[in-house]
Amino acid sequence: MEKAIATLDKDTTCSSWNYSGQRLATGSLHGTLSVFDSPDPASSSSFSPTSKTRVHDDAILKVVWVPPEYGDAVACVCKDGSLSLWEEVVEDAQPLQWKLCKIFKTKSTQVLDVQFGVCSTSLKMVAACSDGHVKVYELLDPLKLKNWQLQAEFQNVIDSVSTFAKASCLSASISWNSLKGESQEASFVLGFNSNTLQLNSSKVWEFDQAHNRWVPVAELALPGDKGDQVYSVAWAPNIGRPYEVLAVSTNKGIAIWHVGSNPDLDGRLSVEKVALLSGHGDEVWQMEWDMSGMTLATTGSDGMNLLMEIGFMQSHLKAPTSFMGSFSFLQNPKINPCKPTIVFKSYTVRKLAGMLRRENIVRSWLLPVDTWPWPPNIDSENIASQLLSSLSLFPYLGFLYFMSRSKSTPKLTLFGFYFLLAFVGAAAKVHYGTSLSNVDWLHGGAESLLSLTNLFIVLGLRQALRRVKDAKQGTPNAVRGIKKEKSSI
Amino acid sequence: MSGDTNEGALVAYSAEADKAVVYPLRHGVKPPISRLAISWSRGNTLRVSVLRKPSTSGDSGDEVGGKVVEVKLGSGDGDGEISDAQWRRIAYGSVSPFALLQSRRNSISTLSKMSFNSSPYHVEWWEYVLEYSREINSLLGNRQSPPCPLIEDPKAVLKKMEEPTCLKAAWELMELFYADKLSQAWLPEQLVDWLADYDSLLSGTQMTIHLKLVDFQKDLVSLQVVEDHSKYWEVMSSALAVGWLDIVVKLLRLHGSYQLDQLGKREVIAFEILQNLKLDRLMSLETENGLVEAVAVLISKMPRMRPELEAGKLGECFKAKPDFIKAWEKWRTQITKLECSAFWVQCAHHQTREGLRNMLQIMLGNTNSLCTATCHWIELYISHFLYVRPFTVGLESMYNLAEKCIQLKPVACSHRLMGLMIGILSENIEVVLAECSRGFGPWMVTHAMELLTAGSDQADILLHEERNNLGGISMEELHRLVYAQVLSSHALTWQIAPIYLTSCMKQGMGLLEILLYKQPVYNNQLLLKNMEICRLYELESVSSNIMKIAGMYHWKHGKKGSGIFWLQQARDEVRLNRIAQQMFDSVGKSISDESFRQWEGLIQLLGSESKAVGGLEFLHKYRDFKKCLLQIHDGKTTEAAHQAVESLISLMKNPSTPPRFWLPLLYDSLKLLNWQERPLLNASQTSLLLNKLQELSMAKLRPDFVEADLPPQALSFVRLALATNLGRANLEEQ
Amino acid sequence: MAITAVQNPTQIHRLPQSKYIDAVRWLPPLSPLSKLAVLAVFDADTDIPSLEIHSLSSPSSSPSPTLTQHSRWTPPSRISSLASSSSQPLVAASTLAGSLHVLSVGYDPMVDDNGDGLVSTMEPVLSMDEAGFHVGPICGVDVMESVLVSVGEDGRVNLVNFGDKGFRRVFDGNGLVGFNAVKWASSSEFVTGGYGMGLQWWDLRRPGGPVSQFKANWSQGKNGGMVHSIDIHPSRKHTCLAGGSSGAIFAWDLRWQQQPIVLSGVGIGDAATPSLSESEVWEVQYDCYTKPSNISSSRVLPAMFCSEDGILGVVEQGEEPTELLAEPCAINSFDIDLQNPSDVICSLEWESIAIVIRP
Q1: Rounded to a whole number, what is the distance in angstroms from the first to the last CA of chain C?
Q2: CA distance B510 to B531
Q3: Disordered: where is this region (chain C) (predicted)?
Q4: Bridge partners, residue C94, by sequence
Q5: What is the ipTM of this complex?
Q6: Count of Cβ atoms closer than 10 Å to residue A79 Cβ
Q7: Tens digit of pLDDT for each residue in B183-227?
């Protein structure tokens, strides 16, 4: 089930993989940055160190990769609070090596966390400092990581008038919203673990292009627990939901938040806390969403530091339960891995059967007909609109490709399909004045679901989920999601 | 639809559903462990860095500081009955049938929506599905037995077959119940065949008839007088119970009474016995022979409700039900006659008598003897179809029967095939899906979905209806997404994930874009393969982004040529202009021949694509210009100077020369402008340059103006030089 | 897929390998009976690359031929390009790590005849992996008599002679240019191809740079691409055949310098040229099996190609292209058997080998 792919050096303090999972950067207690590579491209069985660079005298606390559009570079946060950018580059004469691009260092404060966001025009870097200040830098020259410009500096508070002079923060966590297209504004979520309560609660900051400033658009905390220390935040990638999903871990547990996409009158986004998971006993170190934003993996300790675990959680679950599964480091004979899965199954089967009997949706069954004798009396608009309403163009393209490959389909059929496609293209232009390839609502509102375990774990939890819904007043979020989708269409 | 109680009867219910599943993770790092770091790799793979607590004492230098462990989550099937390579082969193979079926569905749905239902070439949808199912089935391995030896061993009861897989068994079961509409009429017989093929699979969990036979086959060689052994009769009745007639008859032929050759005669006797004639003249031995033969004849004459039998299988086929019923009645009456005939008393050999009568009981459908003869509940179930209720058609009350069988033969731990079977019989789509997914993994669910929907409209509605609690996507889409993610966990299979993703209306493309973005760009061939996928699904933005990444990678890693190439492909004006600046400087600075040769190739490369270059292709002319200047620097030759002027003018005329380079160009050519002997530029040329200069000073006011790094008074120098030159030129022209 | 075989008399056999095949080449036969092919494979489960010699035999029992592995050799890194000498039993392989290896194929005297002919073995005779040979992957390699030429993304062109150790640098592009393919024209001339659909003609007797360069400026809005493969017919050294991006297959005749003869491709040449493929053409070779329709020296001889969108076809100047194989997956490389040119071996993306035997 598991296999070791790399062996880390002595006194390694932190590690980080690049965007494609092909390179590993680790930092050590003595300020050495080592980079691991696999022998061949697209092979990921064994990684060995290819370069070691002395970055700093002090220990490296955090290594963060710069987005690949700007080369292979990392940002190192060191113990003394300095932040340095290093990139791998060949310069005229010298061979390939890691070179220092820039050092950010201030006497008074220390950098706690740094994250990069690729915006439509430029690269942005957000650094959270120990005095509760947030600094946003912008890269001027896309080819050189030297020239940074401080774009904004603010504190993590909703009302910007009040500033807190003597704030001291232990840790901070930043997570960018991965942009989908130029139109969307850059935004990130930020939370502190500090003695100043107002700073702590994690807030979503969005760049206001018009006024060229950063504005807080949402606060992810219920009135009661605004002051909770935030250990870690994670913004889920969105593959087509009408709203964003964020995970925030505080001392109360891991909260899953839904953040609406379109703001209200005073520019705030609608937020809803959909789940609170009592995951790890003590502190949560790290949270990571998978590529589909379906599964959240977390690490943490349970205080006694005996049991370290990685938990999994599905973004849509509103259940009071904690984890789908978890890897334990405690070789405990009592733990029996196979049994619960069976339990899941039986549980699900029963509930599901009951649940689905209540649903009765009428749907017209499409009468099957053969396609290839093309009727002369069909107008293109009709076909196209039909096709569009069934939104079946994307698979269509794919299938055409495959049909054209496989000899088993008669040429006439193929012709038929292409013929149809041509019409759709045309009609799409007519109807929407745009090519279908970038009609956005095609992948419209949907909430995603788990991938790693099988379906029924979720289905099983739907019962619990219902319980929660009943207990909780206010419309369930999914319904609103659907409304949104309609309006957008 | 079956009620909850039945469900309860089938599956053990337990309330502790939402307890975490805990897997121990073996990482082999010595404690104390200070920290874990996680990172999702491609698809479902999670990478865990296990960091050891830094040792304060520096003496122990050899130990490792931690390990990185890769964990694959929720991919593949339950047990490792199928190797990774085999799984990949199945994944590859199932792409084309799936794609073909989907495209057929699309076109059909389109046409039918256009009220175009009456096609002259009317093909039932399930026929397409069946074709699809057959193709998939062939992928899962075909069970042809090796060529049988010429001299067949009479004692070899069981044929050697290659080991079947649960996956194939499950698929055939689904095909049987959902896709294959033609053979619905003789479903029971189909089940009999299915069990005959796959009974061995059930042997893993508990005793089966197949296992019995295998054991008996072992000690058969050693046995002398088989009929004396109770096991012989036991095995035969078992085989008979599940309708493996050929095996039974083969075993019967081993009966001792066949040793003495009176074959000719015995048939006569058997006939007479069957006719129940009065023949007390017979000796007991002959009676015995006769009885054995009679039973053998009865068995091999068993009427069966099915279109045809493959070679070697016994029984008489009937397509139409009425004929079948008639024949069945006749057959039964013969059995009953034989059962209550007087010959049994004359049969001396005790085991033979009892064994034969027991077999008759089985054929008469005596529940008790059936129950004792069979081991697994499914075997009992099948035997019921054969002997108790032979006229069953379709799924009517099949489920209740199954329950009874299970009550009679309770299962210790349920086999995944049986789970699936129960799901199907209970006509509960969710259970079927659940069992597929649990027992056979995402591949099975994704592809079996087509069979289910073909099976019934109810299933179709169920699977295509969009559910809020699944995030507005249908079950079908959900499972395709899950499967796509499993595919993308492997470097070789991720390329077929798009096929499944594009069949997901809502979230497929979103996932595909992320998937493409996460692919490494270091290898050109892989990169081009990704580009092809982007081209196919019209993901221009994604592809340009990927090429941008590739371009930057090459540029930074000393492969400037490929870097620029990819940036051009990505049409990244911003970066290309920056690069143009850099190259302009470097070409300008280093005007030694050597460095020129270096740039030669690159500039050649740039020359070819005038459109995508982004203000780089003027470097050609600039290079020529610089060459001329160089010659002038060496020895002042007037024709060189003239060439230089020519290229300067052409540069300035050329629209592709970015304005920000005008001033540096002019500044470079100051030497030319105030040339000693005679003005090199005529009036018109000079005025052209002056105009450019004017434009430049206007451009200074615009915000997007880029200041060239030149001495501040450069502009005035140039202006002065031009002015004087103009003056001289005018003078000369008069 | 069986249908394909039915429709045309050409017989097609697909042999799943459960390993990714990077490149494939026929070997000149060591004995009249044997039919050997060398495969550059990559085991995805263990991440181990290897070079394997298989003998192709068609036993009477099974309808399809079978590949039986004779010997294997493990290179330091994954193999990027493979070339087999037509004259002597030699295999030249270049790796992604930038090393170059030459192996001689012979019979193992120890192992005697075991039914299907002798067992062939591989002997590494030369391996060039010293620092500064190439930086990064070697993209193309070709062998002529006893001299190897190798080109890479780093823009270096190196010659390696079997006899003497070390290598000779012909050109160093310092990464400002990159080459993807190389082919010998004669013992002293070779052609390279790379980015921007460019071809360069080199002559060892005139060092310092390419003797002549071909810069295609295509008519339609064609924004570049790269050359993946080059072939030169021994009888017509003046024309070289090249295949590259977006289905482009063209011939460059030294006598008509700047005008390419476009055989296939979208957006290049005149729109009339029919093209089977629109994606990357991974490999092109002159097809000595297809008889040219007219044998004037001006006409380009028929050429076979394989492409990313799964087409194996034959194109000829002014003729309709013919399709030999249409796969749902990419065809990454192929080779025509020089001994009996009706046989073609291809490596498919989906971890399998296809053998095409033309009537």
Answers
A1: 19
A2: 17
A3: 54-80
A4: C81, C100
A5: 0.82
A6: 15
A7: 777 888 889 999 988 888 888 778 889 988 888 888 887 877 777
- CB-CB under 8 Å, C97 with A43: no
| Cross-sheet strand order for the sheet of C156-161 | C138-144, C147-152, C156-161, C167-172
Which chain B residue lies closest to A410 (C-alpha atoms)? B100
B116 vs A contacts (CB less than 8 Å) = 369, 375, 378
Contact C175 A90 (CB under 8 A): yes
Q: What is the pLDDT of residues B347-372, one digit of tens each?
A: 778 888 888 889 999 998 888 999 99
Residue-wise burial string across C173-191, b where 16 or more C-beta atoms lie within 10 A, e elsewhere? bbbbbbbbbbbbbeeebbb
Chain C residues in contact with A6 (beta carbon < 8 A): none
Q: Under an 8 A CB cutoff, do B22 and A328 touch? A: yes
> Is some CB atom of chain A closer than 8 A to the CB atom of B558?
yes
Q: Does A94 touch chain C (CB under 8 A)?
A: no
Per-residue pLDDT tens over the stretch B447-472: 999 898 887 788 888 888 887 766 67
3-state SS assignment for residue A280: coil
What pLDDT sits at residue A347?
22
Element containing residue C313 per DSSP (H, E): strand C311-315
* Cβ within 8 Å of residue B280, ≥6 positions away: none
Nearest to A58 by CA among A131, A99, A111, A136: A111
Tell if the CB–CB gap between C195 and B561 is shorter than 8 Å.
yes
Cβ atoms of A276 and A222 within 8 Å: the answer is no
HSE of B23, CA atoms in CB hemisphere, 13 A? 19
* C-alpha to C-alpha distance for A218 and A202, rounded to whole angstroms: 9
CB contact under 8 A, C175 and A43: no
Cα angle for residues A263, A265, A266 (degrees, 5° grid): 90
Give A-chain residues touching C97 at CB under 8 angstroms. 39
**Touching partners of C (3+ C-beta pairs < 8 Å):** A, B
List the chains bordering chain B where 3 or more Cβ pairs fall under 8 Å. Answer: A, C
Distance CA A108, CA C345 (A): 69
Q: Which chain B residues are closer than 8 Å to A87 by Cβ?
A: 556
What whole-number distance in Å separates Cα of residue B468 and Cα of residue B473?
Answer: 7
Strands B66-72 and C20-26 come out as: unpaired
**Is the pLDDT score of A137 beyond 90?**
yes
Q: What is the pTM of this model?
A: 0.81
Other Cβ atoms within 10 Å of A306 Cβ, number:
12
Q: Chain A to chain C, count of Cβ pairs less than 8 Å apart?
A: 39
The C-alpha atoms of residue B447 and residue B483 are separated, in whole angstroms, by 10
Provide the CB-side half-sphere exposure for C187 (13 A, CA): 3
Gap between the Cα atoms of C76 and C73, Å rounded: 10
Return contacts of A303-306, CB within 8 angstroms, 24+ apart: A306/A330
Residue C66 CB-density burial (10 A; 0-12 exposed, 13-18 middle, 19+ buried): middle
Beta-carbon pairs below 8 A across chains A and B = 491
Residues 531-590 of B with CB under 8 A from C: 532, 535, 554, 557-562, 565, 568-569, 571
Q: How far is CA C327 from the centre of its chain?
A: 19
Which residue is listed with tokens 């977390």?
A: A298
pLDDT at B354: 87
Contact C328 A43 (CB under 8 A): no
Supply the DSSP symbol for B116: -
CA C359 to chain centre: 23
Write down how long chain A is: 489
- The string of DSSP codes covering A100-141 is EEEEE--SS--EEEEEEEE-SSSEEEEEEETTSEEEEEEES-
Residues of C in contact with A399 (CB under 8 A): none
Tell me the per-residue pLDDT of A196-212, one tens digit each, with 9 for 90 and over.
Answer: 888 889 999 999 888 88
